[in-house]
Amino acid sequence: MGLGSLASSVWALDLQQSYDAALRNDATIRAARAQADASRERLPQARAQLLPNISVNASRNYNDLTTDTMSAGRPLTLENEYYSGSKSLSVRQALYRPAQFAALEQAKALIADADAVLEYTEQSLVVRVGEAYFNALLATDQVSLIAAQKVSYSEQLKAAIKGFEAGTGTRTDVDEAQARLDMTVAQELEALQNRDLARRRLEVLTGEPLGELARLNPDLFQPEALKSHEVHDWILRAEGASPELQALRAQVAAAQAEIDKAQAGHKPTLDAVAQWSKTSSDSVTSINSRYDQKSVGLQLTVPLYSGGYVNSTVRQAVAAHSQAQERLEAARLDLGVRVHEQFRILAEGVLKISALEQSVRSAEQAVISNRKSFAAGSRTTLDVLNAEQQRTLALRDLAQARYNYLLAQVHLHSLAGNDRWASITQANAYLVP
Fold it and tell me: What stretches of 76-170 show up as alpha helix (H) in DSSP?
């Protein structure tokens, strides 16, 4: 493989490009689109039940007629062969069919449900891609931190060995530095496995081979402070715009239409019927006769008794409607809890990030101080190693807090039904190649 084809086989991408690729390639999204397309066909099917129904029938038959009779007191057998046929054109137009009108309204509700489910799936994809992307970044950061820690431990091991050989250090310093280095090598292997798995998950979502990922730029990252009273505004916004609730409201409307359909079983139906037919030799008494008949009229059907079937379907539809209403209410309450949870993560995340940034600065200063004290003989190798480890943990926690903040931001906008492209663009602005 040449260098050009090798370069084209990987793709360095950011969060927005990841979402674009997932929209094209994710199997869950494609399935949701196919489901929405299938549901949209309910409307023309329901309308067809209210439009004219036109049919043509034609037949052509060969007849071999044998007639046994009596003539002058003697048996007589007659043989007659002839052709018969018919042609008819029928037109039926529904005038009053309450069940079909209810089915039309139900089809509209089911289409609204399918569209909302598709939007919900696409909103959920924002969260899935964001989670996979930020997990991949965190795993990559973890590898870098452990690699830097391994370099630092290697230097500390060299210093401990040098001190031991010079008589200013102890064997314990060498053993402690060697143990930390060995442990770091094992942690590095685990971190590499986690990074490969995280990248693989993102690769499956996007359906594209991955190159380098755009990284978070701490200088651009400015978390927005939220006020506690704003959570109620977010909950109200979510209750009004959440595609999840919109889908459930459409299901309630469809369930109501099902009640109307079931109740229509008690109501009469009225159709306009027109027919034009031509027949020839249509019976043994009309051989070689032709008829041309035209008819126009109304057909009324009045249901009288169906063994309790209609009443049962009405009760079933009412129960299904109650179920849909309760599901909507349960989802509304649960949505409020989830919005509140993500809002708290954002609100507290600002303070947590600020505290961790200070923790990183303190940890870095502690490393510098311990190294100087070690050089002066007032600190041991273990003190320096502990300070190095504390700095690595502080850097890891800070990176994780930043990614958690960005993911909560994306998740909150998704729950509230906000523009998913704007949500992605907002988070993507903090990333650089």
Answer: 98-166
